[in-house]
Design goal:
single chain, elongated, alpha+beta, two-stranded antiparallel sheet
């Protein structure tokens, strides 16, 4: 059952990553949030639940445990300034600041994340089939 749990944690992390990417894409043209602050694109930070060195020290490779979300951090990109003097959110020079991130890069990350999610689904299905076959062989 360990492999199914590892795949499940991968599914959870990739689903959360998809949500963050979708929020970034939805707010691509959002100059200000409800609080009045400029919107900043976010990035999900994830990694292993247990460090590789800790796993080697314990000597139990079967206790890997999968991955987890460490947090969500803003992307350090300068805002994209667009000249829109008629916009009420424009500064004194007539520029509006939108979130600064690479739209093509965000779409690429969306595709990569969806493929990782699909790979975890396939691994989960394969593990389930192997466990079912082992149970069937055990009954004989």
């Amino acid at each position: 059952m360990q492999s199914m749990e590892i795949s499940r944690t991968g599914l959870d992390v990739e689903w959360r990553r998809l949500e963050v990417i979708a929020e970034n894409l939805a707010n691509a043209n959002t100059a200000r949030t409800a609080t009045g602050e400029p919107y900043r694109a976010m990035r999900l930070v994830s990694g292993p639940r247990q460090g590789f060195a800790d796993m080697l020290k314990s000597g139990e490779t079967a206790a890997a445990g999968g991955v987890m979300v460490y947090g969500v951090e803003p992307i350090n990109a300068p805002p994209r300034r667009v000249y829109e003097p008629a916009n009420p959110q424009a500064d004194t020079d007539g520029f509006v600041s939108y979130p600064g991130y690479d739209h093509a890069g965000e779409m690429t990350l969306l595709l990569k994340t969806s493929r990782a999610y699909e790979a975890n689904l396939v691994a989960l299905g394969a593990a389930r089939q192997m466990y079912a076959k082992a149970m069937e062989l055990g009954r004989r």
